[in-house]
Amino acid sequence: MIMILGIAGFYHLFVHGPANEFSLQTMLPSASSGIGFLAVIVYNLVGLELVACMGKELRNPVRDMPRAILLASLAIAFLYVFGSMGILMAIPTENLNLVSGIVDALGPLLGKAVHSLFWSVSFLCFRLLVTR
């Protein structure tokens, strides 16, 4: 889903141009708006300590654990930035809501394909739920 948002957003960028201004001044947070994201940052760290419980299941945890953490961190950072940039390339910030940003972005980016995507993803999630 994140890849679809990113690809659709960058497609919109190349066809219609960016929906928002991208400069250093617009990307830096202000003190008043940055406080609201503190809860999100703390929530992102929940479960980080569970990685230590997997040490016994690895053949070489001293070598594999740092590699896995680095690889996972890079993949998560890439997907987060790619999806966010895709949304920001296509949807003006005035039209985005912090809670429903992805849902708000899907409609204008994918048009009528949103319904097909919704049912496909719902079916796949159900299929994963009822199978091994």
UniProtKB/TrEMBL annotation:
It is a multi-pass membrane protein. GO terms for cellular component: membrane. Keywords: Membrane, Transmembrane, Transmembrane helix. Residues 11-109 form the Amino acid permease/ SLC12A domain. One of its GO terms (biological process) is transmembrane transport. It is found in: Membrane. InterPro entries: AA-permease/SLC12A_dom. It comes from the Bacteria. It holds the Pfam family AA_permease. Gene3D superfamilies: Amino acid/polyamine transporter I. The chain crosses the membrane at residues 35-56, 68-93, 113-130. This is Amino acid permease/ SLC12A domain-containing protein.
